[in-house]
Amino acid sequence: MMPSGTDILSMRPFEVCSIRPPTENFSLTFRLTRNCYWNKCAFCPVYKLGAKYSKRDLADVLEDISRAKRIDDYLFERGIGYPVYSSASHGRIPEISDQVMAAQWEAGIFPEESPEELRCDQDIDPRLAWFLTWFNSRPNLADCMNHILNWRIHGGATCFLGDADSLNLKPGFVSRIIGTVQENFPGISRFTVYGRTSSAARMRTVKDLRELYRAGLDRVHFGLESGSDKVLSRVHKGVTAEDHVAGCLKTKEAGLSCSVYVMPGLGGADCSLEHAHDTARVLTRIAPDYIRLRSLEIFPMTGLADAVQNGSFTEATEEQVVREIRTLVEETDADTELLSDSATNLLNINGRLPVDRKRILAEIDDYLSLGTREKLEYSLHARLQSFIGQYGEPSEDIITALMPYLRNSRLDLEKAGNQVLNEIITMIRMKLMP
Predict the structure, then answer these.
(1) With 80 as the cut, is the pLDDT of residue 2 above it?
(2) Which end of the chain is more exposed for a tag (fewer CB within 10 A), N or C?
């Protein structure tokens, strides 16, 4: 163990971003804002449990960066990262954090009160209760140590600045944060943020965005969801297709990488074709660096859940959603990377457009050529694989549902009726995080 030069009495947790792009799962994160100021999208469950939007003071964010630096230094002083960072070191975090907390308690220093952001009522919908276990708006010291360790294990080169729309902030504020992070963590080579296309289109000039690029920002993740004004209006997205185009083109002109998310299924059964065709047209005009597929899942306590209940929204079938994706692949005329990096997607299709278009379409058509029963079995295996990939192993209720069909540790679905398969598929899908 190396001698400690860090004042452990000054060590405190810092706020991390529970909501971030999958590509930033192992990034170091800092919150410039809390939650989402729009928070009206009918499909989004994330901030529907009492979370309030707020902009954080510059001094508070700078203090968080300083706290992260102290934790990072202290972990290394305790031998974590020497000679290499390893996942095995997670086992040491409880002991190290307990020792720090014990020293602070002995000195009369007690944990800080942090803002309560999520409401956890006893009668909360079980599905939302499941998701809440994976979000942590009030991290303790051990949580922050594990956050930094994960970042170091995965290279220590990326940083995400959240929460929902950092383009809503003044460029000078964001630039100051990026510069301070770089001073404290010089190994970081990529900074990313979420942004709303309306912010880029209506609030930020190309000069503003170029200032962010020069400060070190590399990429903006935009939630387009759809290129159909009808669909965007129906789900209360608060933007138009022209906002999408203008905001993304300005971002690209400034030198920033543009990563966009689209949501197959968002048009429902009645607007499925319009949603797909219009989205392909918008993507063609934007030619983003990345197109990321996020198939629609409807969550409790959202506008779409209410719309389904009152009959004003009918979900698209899995086959309709796949056909929408086929339309996107076939009609998007742009040099771009298509990625299926969400557990909500049925098909795992990835590639470069236009060069991989023929191969991707063939993969989609292979699925569409299956019979009804074959599609069900395909869906069950795909959803189960996604669940295991996301959580490591099936939950107890999924294991119980599959138990009658396990033969020598393998699934034998011959005796499972179509209704049973649909019920198990639904159970799994309800637990997958987008």
Answers:
(1) no
(2) N
